[in-house]
Amino acid sequence: MLRVYSCIAQDHNLLLVVVAGIICLLAVFTAFSASLRAAQIASRRAVYVVTAALVSGLGIWATHFIAMLAYEPGLTIAYDIPKTLLSALTAVVISGAGWTVALRERPAMAPLGGAIIGTGIAAMHYLGMSAVQLNGEILWDDNLVIVSGGLGVGLAACAVWLHRRKPKDPNFAASFLLALAICSLHFTGMAAVTIYPHQGIDVAPQSIDSQALAVIITLATLVMLGLGAGIVLFDRKLAANQLAEAQQSEALAAEILRGASERERLTAELKRQVEISKAALDNMAQGLSMYDADDRLVVINRRHAELYDLLDEPLEPGTPFAEVSKRMTSLGVVRRTVVSSLDTKVDEARRVVRHELHMPDGRIIEFHRCSLPGGGWVATHDDVTEARAANQQIAYLAAHDTLTGLPNRATFFSQLDVYAKRGQHFAVHTIDLDRFKEVNDTLGHPLGDEILKGAAARLRELTGKQDVVTRLGGDEFAVMQIDIASSTPAELAGRIVERLSEPFEFEGHTIVIGASVGISVAPTDGADAEELLKLSDLALYSAKNESRGTYRFFERGMDSRLCARRQLEEDLRVAIREGQFEVHYQPLLDASTGTIRCCEALVRWRHPSRGLVAPADFIATAEDSGLIIPIGEWVLRQACQDAATWPADVRVAVNVSPAQFKRGDLIAMTVSALSAAGLEPTRLELEITEAVLLHDETWVLSALKQLTALGVRIVMDDFGTGYSSLNYLRRFPFNKIKIDRSFVADLVDTPDAFSIIQATILLSQKLGMEVTAEGVETPEQMQILTDEGCTQIQGYHVSRPVPAAGIAGLLDVYNFECRSRAQSAG
């Protein structure tokens, strides 16, 4: 049985299996009805036997082939036309023989007739299976084939015997057994089938496909339904004739007893109608109560009693409405104060009054009272507590952000519009989380969601009760500051920047993101909600563009700066597309030998109309827009190609932005650039800033170790400007650190700067790292740095950045002269 169940559940379309079962039941019901008429009406026995044969035979055939349409072996199935038609004819002929035997006068012949019908089921099934054509080979389990035949013959014999023993219409038990015989034989037979796909076996071109077979099955089903409908119509006609004859024969007696019988009939009918009405009322989903013109109770249903907890104290018909109200109040079902203050809405056109009762237990009962044409009224009662709660939840979700619980953009905008139209004095703060996208991409969206919820909680803590905090979308928030008297917009914005810059602690991660704020003030800056949001966005853009981690008020002229920024982005895209960038190189002088051992690659933009554009004018925009990624990749590849033409002892240093690290393909890109240029990995230095290390430290550490394993040298740029650089030096595989130019600029005149540089050089020596000083512009600076043990010097004092073509000359000047001096000294 497990195999049969597996065959049905796994290899068949269950919906079509159900359809096959329904067709089968309709067929056997109709066949038994025809056989019963054949037994009752001798003059029309032959007609009914033929009808039973057609209906049962076609029903067996249709059931089989509908189930075959449900069969899904994974191969295209077609059917041989002659065998398919022969299987239908076989089912009809053998079923006719079975019904003929079963209807003989001796009851013992019934099981034999049923067995013959079962044989017809088996013959039809396996003849129908022989019509199946597919690109495969069918093997049979002989045991299941025998079991299927036994089930079909045995159950069919039992079904016909049961129908003959207890003839009635409809005979559900006999019909179910015969349908079970058909279905069990089919699905047990199908469980015996094993198909081995074989591309060498072709489907015959004259075969019939599944769609055509479905049409034939539909026609067969219509024939069965037509025969069944014919039997029903004939039965109705026969019953009508019999009734007419009975009425004529009993006309005289009926006339005599008409008076008494009419009263009895009306009494019974009235009783029946009362019972039907009572059943209908008691099974209504709503409570119902009806009162007459004198406000007396006429009828009340069970649901009404359940709603008002009156099952133990039922109300009797005739009770005045005032008494009903008094009784409900005395039982504590409804508070008197609530009854006297109903929430009422009147529809005059329909004369319907809507009442709403708030029950002591928290439920809300809504009932509609409608006047009746003849006086009185009827009311329906509904418990709408859950519906109201659901509506409130839907309304809440429609007005709030599902992640943070803050009002959403639409709600915020509507409130902002109300206050703007009143001409009130308030401020709009637009807030953007700095570096959130980097954290979200590297640490995952679940952690990003936690940061958003934490940021929302902090904003609620900082704002007043009247202020409105919202999440506009993504990592952008907004605050409508109503209470300006107790805290100025600048003070609130400062607190927001400070609070959101504090670290977030989640799942063992310490994450620092920061925030930028743009502020517009109504009605000074604008008196329209949309305009105020736009102006605060402009101010936010200015804050992010200048330094991030700060706030800016809207100022006139920001519009033009935004346009300039957008134009700059578009020009950068054109520059990338048309190859307007070039790489200049600034040498790093070895302090101990006076030779150039490395050159830093610095990108320059040669604009067709603006000339050479300095990096400070476009790098920040490129980073914010993501264009730094294609620019950085081009610089890396070009630098590797140029360095491949230099002497083998000269390295090239390339800056890597956080955006390039975030994308995750830096290792593959580096290997590709080195391979394309034919440059040894040991001649490449990658300079990274502390911003790169703000990503997932585990992932960054893994990437840097892989690069180091290749031979690439890792340099920490702008050392000393971050808050945890010492910790990074301990954990990450740096080969060199670069002292930021801000310390070198103050080296001579500021003792603190000298102390920091001195400590940094000593630290690098202890850690076995090289140290480079950036921005060296005077001989005095160079002398101090050399005396303190600085490894390399970089700055205008050595050389300004020069095009690639100028590197050969620099190498000749420094390295050739150095070698010449060494040879002379030797």
From TrEMBL:
PANTHER family: BIOFILM ARCHITECTURE MAINTENANCE PROTEIN MBAA, DIGUANYLATE CYCLASE DGCP
Domain GGDEF: 424-556
SMART domains: EAL, GGDEF
Name recorded for this polypeptide: Diguanylate cyclase
Superkingdom to which the source organism belongs: Bacteria
One of the Pfam families matching this protein, by short name: EAL
Transmembrane segments: 12-34, 46-71, 83-103, 110-132, 144-162, 174-196, 212-234
Residue span(s) of domain EAL: 565-815
Domain MHYT: 12-196
PROSITE patterns: EAL (PS50883), GGDEF (PS50887), MHYT (PS50924)
Organism in which the protein naturally occurs: Novosphingobium endophyticum
GO CC, alphabetical: membrane
